[in-house]
Design brief:
Elements: E1 2-3, E2 10-16, E3 23-25, E4 31-37, E5 45-53, E6 59-62, E7 73-75, E8 86-95, E9 100-109, E10 121-123, E11 151-159, E12 166-174, E13 176-181, E14 184-185, E15 202-208, E16 216-225, H1 227-230, E17 249-257, E18 263-267, E19 273-276, E20 279-283, E21 287-291, E22 310-311, E23 313-316, E24 322-324, E25 330-336, E26 340-345, E27 348-366, E28 373-379, E29 381-382, E30 388-389, E31 399-403, E32 410-413, E33 420-428, E34 438-445, E35 451-455, H2 458-474, E36 475-476, E37 478-479, H3 492-505, H4 509-522, H5 550-562, H6 566-585, H7 610-631, H8 635-656, H9 668-676, H10 682-698, H11 707-710, H12 713-719, H13 723-731, H14 740-743, E38 756-757, E39 761-762, H15 779-787, E40 789-791, E41 800-803, E42 812-819, E43 822-831, E44 834-841, E45 846-852, E46 860-861, E47 864-865, E48 872-878, E49 881-886, E50 889-896
Parallel strand pairs: 3-9, 15-24, 21-31, 41-45
Antiparallel strand pairs: 1-9, 2-4, 4-7, 5-6, 5-8, 8-9, 10-23, 11-16, 11-19, 12-15, 12-17, 13-14, 13-16, 17-18, 19-22, 20-21, 25-34, 26-27, 27-32, 27-33, 27-34, 28-31, 28-33, 29-30, 35-42, 36-37, 38-39, 40-41, 42-43, 43-44, 44-50, 45-49, 46-47, 46-50, 48-49
Helix pairs in contact: 3-5, 3-15, 4-5, 5-6, 6-7, 7-8, 7-9, 9-10, 12-13
Bound molecules: alpha-L-rhamnopyranose (RAM).
Alpha-L-rhamnopyranose binds next to helix 3.
Keywords: Glycosidase, Hydrolase
Organism: Actinomadura algeriensis
Protein name: alpha-L-rhamnosidase
């Protein structure tokens, strides 16, 4: 709800814990934030006030008038929040002239860590199932161990005639659950409860089921599958499955507030009854097999005879690991109609969805004979004969099966407990398949999309789209490396290099808040971060340079983007412990010991010496830990880490940098790390920048970096005064380049620069994903460089913007970003010797604008000479630009075009 006043900045987009209207939060002092919009130039808030009320409408917290013009969030500090309670809150923003505007929202608490859980963990009798044995270390593949069927659990209950005032389901599983109430699905979350290290923490979800409860008999009906808990995940043949347990378990409490004031709780216990489901198996990597011969229609509705179901077994009564989910859930976010359905055999069709993505298909089948099978296989690409290529999936079968039952007629098959990374599906077993009968269902954490980018080069627009699809396909519970093969792990370096791009594309604050718990949780007691989080047997625990460092880099960047200091507070001890760990084992400040598997600049065409990569990251992590300490007011720690960072930088220069600025190895990534992390004194930095430019030019111009260097190429070249080279790299089409895959039909970003070449065909199937986001970390520069929409260095939460377009040879570009402060927009266009630049700055922010022009005298704003324009202060001129500072509002600059006719 928003109260409009034409004269004050208007709050909107209210969030609690970075989520809109969250149900079931466990944070006792949640962050309440809002954004501001205004149509008036110079409109800025003078003060704000937040008022929180309980369900009875009584105030539980009133901040009073806060004199903080740039406030965009407050941390709740009122009366202790009660569990399972709804609170409404309102923010009022007042402008300097006294005009005000307000908006309101709500949040609801979950169990708030309360000890009043009464549900037991329940399961089907494992002896009745062919379970996967937990493998011993050293034991070989589980492939022949078979998978156990998913199980069902049900619990009838009576409800009075009067509808309930409120009903909430608090639920989780060791495994995956889907709950139904009276035949209707509860909520729209997918693959719940998601992946955490279940030994340390298990997320529960809260669902509002008030509308699903009916008078008389009701029934709660759950399906439980293996998921990350007991199914297959990862690539280690010695331990592909059963990482945490052998069979799934459910824990749930339904709380009903009846109209007569009674509070009733229905919890998982031995009154629930269980039975094998018709899902013969359901596994994230293998796929799902629905055998309708075993279906028991009506099982999820009242009046079903469940006498032959067995009582559930209690497997535990512990609740201490339960915490409310903090990330936006995975949802079926969109649907893709097939681009083409091709008949390739008597009962065989190949479906092209036109887009590589993560999810599943929904297939309508008619008149499937009893015992007949429809088999769906998934793949990202086709081989040279036009057939589905699956070698790169390694041991992930990614195959779904439906077997006909007694019912015949029409059935809709949509797997629930698996997902695949694919563009193509091969459907076997149907004599005919219409496009209308098959749909691609896209799954990912439903992070609100915040970024838009467009420009005059369709290739760059497609690159931006592919990068977005890489993000969508890999933000599934944790940030994964890839969605298709037997891996799908939360690799730390992939996540840190891609984070700046991810943060522009979408609001990922809550998503990363959730995953950072896993990153911290995986850290060893002596301070060592891991390579993947959650930790997984088979992947070396000891974090490699650039991988372990993500435990420091991620919180810092999230703090800068969202202005939420808790990213630093919550991670600070872990950050210090990591730096201390590296330091303790490398007292001479050259990081050689405890480098884990040292992946270096992973998959780089030109490798960078390992010690250079390690030294640069050691300095970077130490420097950011020092900065975090300053922000948090931990001045002693700050001084200590600042001194250490300076010594690590000096050591780096002494050991690896020659007096002429050459860095050992003489590679792009070596220079990129040193320049981006500020490791070099000014004179050497200038020489290193020249050497970097020379190397880029000599390569084509082209990139020769792997994962760690790639995202730094364009921004560092830009900072070194060579945006022209950044553009040249962006628009290169030979391998290696970002556009090369587009020439070969890519709709996502590839793991390798040369995943496929006409000369060599596919890269080694042992490691060749077509949907890996790491190389897509160039995406941030499309917003920040090409369009010119960036946050100023030193700013947090987009308080100070840096608008600095780099037109290159393009005719126009524009970007929009929904920041935590409100909407930021930049658009520029060159035509007829003129450059037009439009900029929107939200209230409570300011911007430094660099107007590209050959003639600073020519710059006008809304038709007036820029020096006379309201809200604009000219700062000076630089090579090819006029710099000015602007307050909030919308601006239209025009200037003589710096770069002559548009090609
Ligand atoms: C690969 C993963 C990931 C990378 C590691 C080192 O298996 O796909 O992208 O970070 O190796």
């Amino acid at each position: 709800m928003t109260g409009h006043s034409p004269d004050a900045p208007t709050p909107y987009g209210l969030r609690c814990e970075h989520l809109a209207e969250p149900l079931g939060i466990d944070e006792g002092s949640p962050l309440l934030s809002w954004r501001l919009a205004s149509a008036r130039r110079g409109d800025a808030p003078a003060s704000c006030r937040v008022l929180v009320r309980d369900e009875a409408g009584l105030p539980v917290w009133d901040t009073g008038e806060i004199d903080a013009p740039d406030a965009a969030a407050v941390r709740y500090a009122g009366a202790p929040l009660r569990p399972r309670a709804r609170y409404r809150w309102q923010v009022t923003v007042t402008a300097g002239d006294g005009a005000s505007a307000e908006a309101s929202s709500w949040f609801e608490t979950g169990r708030l860590g309360a000890a009043d859980w009464r549900a037991s963990w329940i399961a089907h009798d494992p002896d009745d199932l062919d379970v996967i044995d937990a493998p011993e270390e050293g034991e070989l593949a589980l492939a022949d161990h078979g998978l156990s069927p998913a199980v069902r659990l049900r619990r009838p209950f009576e409800a009075p005639a009067a509808p309930p005032v409120r009903a909430r389901l608090y639920i989780t599983a060791r495994g995956l659950y889907e709950m139904r109430l009276n035949g209707r699905r509860v909520g729209d979350h997918e693959l719940t409860p998601g992946w955490t290290d279940y030994r340390d923490r298990i997320d529960y979800q809260t669902h509002d089921v008030t509308e699903l409860v009916v008078a008389g008999e009701n029934v709660l009906a759950a399906t439980l599958a293996d998921g990350w808990w007991s199914g297959f995940v990862g690539f280690d043949p010695r331990r592909l499955g059963a990482h945490y347990g052998n069979h799934p378990q459910l824990l749930a409490e339904l709380h009903i507030d009846h109209a007569d004031g009674r509070h009733e709780v229905i919890a998982t216990d031995t009154t629930w009854r269980t039975r094998r489901s018709p899902l013969r198996y359901a596994d994230l990597l293998k796929g799902e097999c629905l055998d309708l011969r075993r279906e028991t229609p009506g099982w999820d509705r009242p009046s079903f005879a469940d006498e032959d179901w067995a009582p559930a077994r209690i497997t535990g009564t512990d609740h201490h690991l339960l915490t409310a989910s903090v990330a936006p859930p995975i949802r079926a976010v969109r649907e893709l109609a097939p681009r083409a359905v091709t008949r390739v055999g008597a009962d065989r069709h190949l479906v092209d969805f036109g887009q590589n993505f993560a999810g599943r298909v929904r297939l309508t089948v008619r008149d499937l004979a009893f015992g007949a099978r429809v088999v769906i296989r998934h793949g990202e690409v086709l081989d040279e004969d036009g057939a589905l290529y699956t070698d790169n999936l390694r041991t992930a079968d990614a195959t779904d099966v439906v077997i006909g039952g007694e019912d015949g007629g029409e059935l809709v098959f949509e797997p629930r407990f698996t997902y695949h990374g694919f563009r193509y599906a091969e459907v076997v077993g149907l004599p005919a398949l219409e496009a209308a009968d098959i749909t691609g269902v896209v799954l990912h954490n439903d992070t609100p999309w915040t970024g838009e980018f467009a420009c005059s080069d369709p290739d760059l627009e497609r690159l931006h789209a592919n990068i977005g699809w890489g993000q969508r396909s890999n933000f599934l519970s944790v940030p994964t490396d890839c969605p298709q093969r037997d891996e799908r792990l939360g690799w730390l370096a992939d996540a840190q290099v891609f984070l700046p791009t991810a943060c522009l594309n979408a609001d990922v604050a809550a998503f990363f808040e959730g995953w950072l718990r896993e990153v911290r949780g995986a850290q060893s007691p002596d301070g060592c971060f891991t390579n993947v989080a959650p930790r997984l047997a088979g992947v070396a625990d000891q974090g490699a340079p650039g991988w372990g460092d993500a435990g420091v880099l991620l919180p810092w960047h999230l703090y800068r983007t969202y202005g939420d200091e808790r990213f630093l507070e919550r991670n600070f001890d872990a950050m210090c412990a990591w730096v201390d760990f590296v330091h303790r084992h490398n007292p001479d400040l050259v990081w050689r010991d405890r480098v884990g598997p040292h992946y270096a600049d992973w998959l780089a065409p030109v490798p960078t010496p390992r010690e250079v990569v390690a030294g640069a990251y050691f300095a970077r992590s130490t420097d950011l830990t020092a900065r975090a300490a300053r922000v948090l007011g931990r001045d002693d720690a700050a001084a200590r880490y600042e001194a250490l960072a300076a010594r690590v930088r000096e050591t780096f220069t002494d050991r690896f940098v020659s007096p002429d600025g050459t860095i050992e190895g003489d590679t792009q990534t070596g220079y990129l790390l040193a320049l981006a992390f500020g490791l070099l004194p000014d004179d050497l930095a200038a020489r290193a920048a020249e050497r970097l430019a020379a190397l880029v030019e000599a390569a084509g111009p082209g990139p020769t970096t792997g994962f760690l260097g790639v995202g730094l190429l364009a921004p560092v070249l830009d900072e070194c005064g060579r945006p022209d080279l950044a553009h040249a790299l962006l628009r290169r089409t030979d391998a290696p380049s970002w556009l090369y895959p587009l020439r070969h039909g890519a709709t996502t970003v590839w793991e390798r620069w040369d995943g496929y070449t006409p000369e060599r065909g596919f890269q080694a199937p042992a490691m060749n994903s077509f949907n890996h986001y790491a190389l897509g970390s160039v995406g941030a520069w499309l917003y920040e460089g090409v369009a010119g929409l960036a946050q100023a260095p030193g700013s947090t939460g987009y308080r100070e913007l840096l608008i600095r377009p780099r037109p290159g040879g393009l005719a126009w570009a524009r970007a929009a970003y929904e920041s935590v402060r409100g909407p930021v927009r930049v658009g520029w266009r060159r035509a007829d010797g003129e450059l037009r630049l439009e900029v929107s700055v939200p209230p409570s922010a300011t911007a430094t604008v660099h107007v590209p022009t050959g003639d600073p005298e020519s710059v006008r704003e809304s038709g007036s000479p820029v020096a006379d324009a309201a809200g604009v202060t000219v700062l000076g001129t630089g090579p090819g630009t006029l710099r000015c500072r602007v307050v909030s509002g919308d601006y239209r600059f025009t200037a003589d075009d710096p770069s002559g006719p548009v090609p």
